């Protein structure tokens, strides 16, 4: 499904901002997360005070006060851009929209519910930059060692991670963690489809990239309710896994031996 895009908040960047894009774009897909906008933006700004960055929110068809909360956050001076889907297209579609719109070389994805800790982003970014300096295109995936979710969520995730790891061999203990840092161009090279956000490590490996995991903080949700639920994930997981396994087996990466350009 191709999302209908509404205009981003504010004009397109011009002048010095357009000439000097940020180092990092923080992409946050949200749906009905109005109470979490201002607190999360404040935390991101504090965590990334030393990093040239932008915040790209993608409002996936919210029906609450999320659009107004995003306008207020931008009016407060945060380097924030907001893009809205006219109707909900799902978390993967929102991530794809956000990364395509991002201006930074590096992308950090973050869940909009406040459970991921923005204070972890600089450490994951430093790891990704070190990998790049060593000549590797690497996705740094957060690993929620001490999850602060309900027992049902933790149990279902444990099973899903075990089955996925055995079938796809992505060597990632927690693909469901929304906190990841990776090169923007790496993501743009990946095949894009619904629910792809659950398989980003496997897709990265398929593309010839590398994946490393870093322990990250995880916090309980204190405002709002989950909008991309456990049942939704379970109902599609089997078909997604089968499709992803098929996609892995159809991948072919050419080896470039020479470049005859003058």
From TrEMBL:
Transmembrane portions of the chain: none
Domain Glycosyltransferase 2-like: 25-187
Bias (Low complexity): 8-21
One protein family per Pfam: Glycos_transf_2
Record's keyword annotation contains Methyltransferase: no
Taxonomy, superkingdom: Bacteria
Annotated segments matching region Disordered: 1-21
Keywords: Cell membrane, Glycosyltransferase, Lipopolysaccharide biosynthesis, Membrane, Transferase, Transmembrane, Transmembrane helix
Protein name: Glycosyltransferase family 2 protein
Source species of the chain: Neoroseomonas terrae
């Amino acid at each position: 499904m191709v999302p209908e895009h509404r205009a981003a908040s504010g004009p397109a960047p011009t002048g010095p901002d357009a000439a000097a894009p940020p180092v990092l774009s923080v992409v946050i897909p949200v749906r009905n997360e109005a109470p979490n906008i201002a607190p999360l933006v404040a935390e991101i700004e504090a965590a990334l005070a030393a990093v040239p960055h932008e915040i790209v929110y993608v409002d996936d068809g919210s029906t609450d006060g999320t659009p107004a909360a995003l306008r207020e956050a931008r009016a407060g001076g945060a380097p924030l851009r907001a893009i809205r889907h006219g109707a909900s297209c799902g978390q993967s579609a929102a991530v794809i929209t956000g990364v395509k719109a991002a201006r930074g070389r590096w992308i950090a994805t973050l869940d909009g519910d406040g459970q991921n800790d923005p204070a972890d982003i600089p450490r994951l970014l430093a790891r990704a930059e070190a990998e790049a300096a060593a000549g590797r295109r690497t996705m740094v995936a957060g690993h929620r060692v001490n999850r602060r979710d309900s027992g049902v969520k933790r149990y279902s995730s444990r099973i899903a991670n075990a089955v996925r790891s055995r079938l796809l061999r992505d060597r990632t203990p927690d693909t469901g963690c929304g906190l990841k840092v990776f090169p923007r161009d790496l993501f743009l090279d990946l095949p894009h489809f619904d629910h792809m956000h659950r398989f980003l490590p496997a897709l990265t490996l398929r593309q010839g990239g590398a994946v490393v995991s870093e322990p990250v903080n995880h916090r309980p949700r204190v405002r709002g309710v989950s909008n991309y639920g456990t049942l939704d994930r379970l109902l599609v997981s089997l078909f997604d896994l089968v499709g992803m396994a098929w996609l892995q087996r159809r991948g072919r990466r050419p080896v470039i031996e020479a470049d005859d350009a003058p």
